[in-house]
Amino acid sequence: KSNLMAGKRGLIMGVANDHSIAWGIARTLAAHGAELAFTYQGDAFGKRVKPLAESVGAKHLLPCDVEDIASVDAVFDTLRDDWGSIDFFVHAIGFSDRSELKGKYADTSRENFSRTMLISCFSFTETAKRAAELMTNGGSMITLTYGGSTRVMPNYNVMGVAKAALEASVRYLATDYGPDNIRVNAISAGPVRTLAGAGVADARQMYNYQKRNAPLRRTVSLDEIGGAALYMLSDLGSGVTGDVHFVDSGYSTISMPRLEELRV
Ligand code: NAD
């Protein structure tokens, strides 16, 4: 492995277990020399995340629920007190009530719309602001999005609307922080079998459909998403900001399934 991340410190938010996209990113960054801090949401996830964090020598493992802004502030206060500055930040957090990740988007409730937007979109703006304050030598941050933001995917519903807003916020934040040499990008991943992914109705069928129809005829691995994150968060990506980068086996480029698919 390289020394691409040697001497760089950063925060990873969104590891729930070893299937999490955030974990694929974290272990890749660690393998290339990064020093990591993790957050976890609640004690049940904390128990799962602890051995993962230990396995990459993380110094900080901090509780954080983005619905509780005091817990967000506490995370960044701890990093400021101990590290003084950070170099990168990964936001891999999303949530919507699974009872609304099926059926019609039009049936989304006011309560779940607000909660989905807060956790899946605005939490990035709030954490990015705090992360940027600690990026006194410049830095790079990413969030995770999905192609349901710009094109309709069955059942993705309000999450698609939140991801569209998240992608727009990436462009605005990139513009705000560009003068400070802080880059802000999104990785748009193809479907991955995670806890959050399983919340979308018929997730398995959509996963298999993309496997059959994406140009690469497969889905993407956690390591492949980690590789893209390494590019975005290291100096390799130093000219890139405000981007939404697809890591999806090319699925976003096609406009029709394979003809064989139509004959089955
Ligand atoms: P995951 O379930 O492993 O991770 C989701 C994380 O969000 C969990 O760690 C959970 O604790 C956290 N979270 C939810 N609500 C929170 C809150 N209030 N406060 C703090 N943390 C909270 O699933 P994942 O698929 O790895 O999801 C990570 C990101 O990747 C999400 O933004 C998701 O939308 C995005 N994404 C997922 C896929 C996929 O197919 N799985 C595809 C593209 C993008």
TrEMBL record:
Q: Which domain of life is it from?
A: Bacteria
What's a Pfam family in this record?
adh_short_C2
The protein's Enzyme Commission number: 1.3.1.9
Q: What class of enzyme is it?
A: oxidoreductase
Keywords on this record? Answer: Fatty acid biosynthesis, Fatty acid metabolism, Lipid biosynthesis, Lipid metabolism, NAD, Oxidoreductase
Q: List the GO molecular function terms.
A: enoyl-[acyl-carrier-protein] reductase (NADH) activity
Entry keyword annotation includes Oxidoreductase: yes
Q: Which Gene3D superfamilies match?
A: Enoyl acyl carrier protein reductase, NAD(P)-binding Rossmann-like Domain
Q: Which reaction does it catalyse?
A: a 2,3-saturated acyl-[ACP] + NAD(+) = a (2E)-enoyl-[ACP] + NADH + H(+)
Pathway listed for it is:
Lipid metabolism; fatty acid biosynthesis
> Is Lipid metabolism one of the keywords UniProt gives this record?
yes
Q: Which NCBIfam families match?
A: PRK06505.1
What family is this protein classified in? Belongs to the short-chain dehydrogenases/reductases (SDR) family. FabI subfamily.
What is the name attached to this protein's record?
Answer: Enoyl-[acyl-carrier-protein] reductase [NADH]
